[in-house]
């Protein structure tokens, strides 16, 4: 009887991997879960834009221009009678998708560059890091503005512009921790059995620096979304009539005095999504690396 | 110390050269004819061709780059604007003060609010003061600056009519732009200050200071804050760079004639030499700020200062010190 209990106890301990430990810590963190809840809600609402507003974001109704938010139009209508609800939801799709895609692009490039840089060291490291220094000396948003001004507007170009501006951040996030584990025995062991460089990098090094990557990815997506909407706000990035949160704010600015709700809705949307990602990202960091928590 | 500074300044040169190369090639490869921008779409083809050769744009790109750099290095001449033909150096000099004033004033405000709130939150840890400060910090980090600027305009200019909406005709016009960047950056600085204070408050030297009966004020301001200043300085430098970038958008909203407005004009009119010059100026400032952050460590931290001295003596960093860095 007693033996059985012990056995069960051992199994219980075994079943909890480091990852599930972290997840358990994350679920216990109320603020992080609150952020996650908002994030999921907003993303689902944007994905359901077709169902909530089947008319699309460009359906005009000249009889109901500038209708204040109310029962008929929850978020009101703009100067062409288009529903702000539809425009914010479809705009959210653009903001979220472009921000996310840009971060994926930047993460992929940055992680590869950072890993190669740390793994080969010396000359390679020097060259890659000096090139990244060049990009680092131009603030993120400004870099995105310059690249975007050369590429032109549009979704793909905006993804590229914002994505490139996030590369140095990811490269640095990966490089530091990898340098720290390069001297570990298991890397030495992998080398001794003649493992290929790519195998050591992707099987042995990267999985061990996953935590900072996950955290950087969450917080980086928030920054990318801000960057995308800043670009559109400045008249680059996404062009009207296609909606995007920053573009909607820029449009609403001219009516700030008389129809402030045109700005309030997209403004709150951006702040909310970035807020929720920051809450969730902070929670993730605390969960994945409890030493950092205070 | 001096040797280190000179070395760092020399190290800035390849970075800035890299910036000019990237900017130059990105823009030279951009489709579209600059002559269309300068002379208008309808100008005669012969005039356009003449304009192109006058500006040396028919040379190979490497030659163009060489000429561009030669002029900058020998005469400090960034070329002339495509659209109005004015020298770019003059344009930069006339627009730069507005941006740097906005960035520095807002950073000063951010430091005062951020550091004080951060200390308060760390000392009153896990009380309602701490909770409010934390919500403020995450809200501030999440708020897009252009949206916050509009909120302030709605409240203080349109509703209460205390402050002007936009323009640049006196001190009153500066309050909202400075407040926008100042409050938002304060949130970030507060977060860092709180974390750095808490980190240091658990150190042995704090216990020692308390054990020898030093006053709580001395412990907080001298022992804890003194040591927390290193991460805080790094953070402040980062926010100064952020404020420079943020100023681009804020200047647009408040119609301030700064570098940001200049850049947006340059982008809208495809005035590449002007855009190149402005971005280069920002890159130089960023590099200088990075250098100042590193040098300020020596001023704040006697340990770093001692290390600088040993570098100067031995001429270069020992292996142990390199690893530490």
UniProtKB/TrEMBL annotation, chain A:
GO terms for cellular component: plasma membrane. The chain crosses the membrane at residues 96-119, 209-238, 258-281. Keywords: Cell membrane, Membrane, Transmembrane, Transmembrane helix, Transport. SUPFAM superfamilies: MetI-like. The keyword Transmembrane applies. It is a multi-pass membrane protein. It is found in: Cell membrane. InterPro entries: BP-dependent_transpt_permease, MetI-like, MetI-like_sf, OppC_N. Residues 92-281 form the ABC transmembrane type-1 domain. Its main location: membrane. Belongs to the binding-protein-dependent transport system permease family. This is Peptide/nickel transport system permease protein. It comes from Ruminiclostridium sufflavum DSM 19573.
TrEMBL record, chain B:
Keywords: Cell membrane, Membrane, Transmembrane, Transmembrane helix, Transport. InterPro entries: BPD_transp_1_N (IPR045621), MetI-like (IPR000515), MetI-like_sf (IPR035906). GO terms for cellular component: plasma membrane. Its main location: membrane. It is found in: Cell membrane. The chain crosses the membrane at residues 9-29, 102-123, 135-160, 172-192, 239-259, 279-300. One of its GO terms (biological process) is transmembrane transport. Residues 96-293 form the ABC transmembrane type-1 domain. It is a multi-pass membrane protein. Belongs to the binding-protein-dependent transport system permease family. This is Peptide/nickel transport system permease protein. It comes from Ruminiclostridium sufflavum DSM 19573.
């Amino acid at each position: 009887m007693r033996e059985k209990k012990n056995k069960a106890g051992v199994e219980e301990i075994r079943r909890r991997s480091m990852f599930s430990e972290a997840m358990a810590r994350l679920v216990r963190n109320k603020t992080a879960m609150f952020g996650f809840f908002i994030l999921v809600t907003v993303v689902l609402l944007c994905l359901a834009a077709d169902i909530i507003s089947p008319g699309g974001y460009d359906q005009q109704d000249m009889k109901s221009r500038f209708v204040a938010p109310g029962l008929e139009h929850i978020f009101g209508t703009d100067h062409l009678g288009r529903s702000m609800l539809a425009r914010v939801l479809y705009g959210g799709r653009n903001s979220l998708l472009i921000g996310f895609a840009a971060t994926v692009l930047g993460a992929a490039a940055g992680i590869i560059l950072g890993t190669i840089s740390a793994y080969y060291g010396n000359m390679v490291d020097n060259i890659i890091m000096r090139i990244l220094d060049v990009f680092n000396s131009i603030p993120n948003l400004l870099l995105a503005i310059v690249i975007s001004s050369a590429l032109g507007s549009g979704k793909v170009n905006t993804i590229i512009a914002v994505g490139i501006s996030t590369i140095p951040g990811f490269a640095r996030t990966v490089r530091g921790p990898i340098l720290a584990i390069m001297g570990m025995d298991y890397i030495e062991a992998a080398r001794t059995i003649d493992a290929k460089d790519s195998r050591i990098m992707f099987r042995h090094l990267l999985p061990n620096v996953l935590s900072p990557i996950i955290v950087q990815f969450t917080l980086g997506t928030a920054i990318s979304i801000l960057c995308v909407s800043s670009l559109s706000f400045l008249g680059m990035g996404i062009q009207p009539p296609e909606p995007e949160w920053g573009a909607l704010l820029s449009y609403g600015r001219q009516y700030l005095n008389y129809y402030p709700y045109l700005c309030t809705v997209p403004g709150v949307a951006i702040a909310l999504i970035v807020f929720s990602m920051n809450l969730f990202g902070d929670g993730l960091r605390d969960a994945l690396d409890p030493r950092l928590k205070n | 110390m001096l040797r280190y500074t000179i070395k760092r300044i020399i190290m800035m040169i390849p970075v800035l050269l890299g910036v000019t190369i990237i900017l130059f090639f990105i823009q030279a490869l951009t489709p579209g004819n600059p002559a269309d921008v300068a002379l208008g779409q309808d100008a005669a083809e012969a005039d356009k061709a003449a304009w192109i050769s006058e500006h040396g744009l028919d040379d190979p790109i490497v030659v163009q780059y060489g000429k561009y750099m030669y002029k900058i290095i020998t005469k400090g001449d960034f070329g002339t604007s495509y659209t109005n033909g004015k020298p770019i150096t003059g344009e930069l000099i006339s627009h730069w003060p507005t941006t740097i004033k906005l960035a520095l004033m807002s950073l000063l405000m951010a430091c005062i609010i951020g550091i004080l709130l951060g200390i308060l939150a760390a000392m009153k840890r896990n009380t309602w003061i701490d909770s409010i400060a934390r919500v403020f910090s995450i809200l501030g980090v999440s708020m897009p600056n252009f949206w916050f600027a509009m909120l302030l305009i709605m409240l203080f200019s349109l509703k209460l009519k205390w402050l002007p909406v936009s323009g640049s005709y006196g001190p009153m016009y500066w309050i909202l732009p400075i407040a926008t960047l100042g409050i938002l950056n304060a949130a970030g600085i507060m977060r860092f200050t709180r974390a750095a204070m808490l980190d240091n408050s658990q150190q042995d030297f704090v216990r020692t200071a308390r054990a020898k009966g030093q006053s709580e004020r001395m412990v907080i301001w001298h022992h804890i804050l003194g040591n927390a200043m290193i991460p805080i300085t790094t953070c402040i430098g980062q926010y100064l760079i952020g404020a420079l970038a943020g100023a681009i958008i804020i200047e647009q909203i408040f119609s301030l004639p700064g570098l940001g407005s200049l850049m947006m004009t340059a982008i809208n009119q495809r005035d590449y030499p002007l855009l190149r010059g402005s971005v280069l100026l920002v890159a130089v400032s960023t590099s200088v700020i990075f250098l100042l952050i590193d040098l300020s460590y020596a001023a704040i931290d006697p340990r770093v200062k001692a290390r600088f001295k040993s570098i100067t003596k031995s001429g270069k960093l020992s292996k142990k010190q390199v690893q530490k860095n």
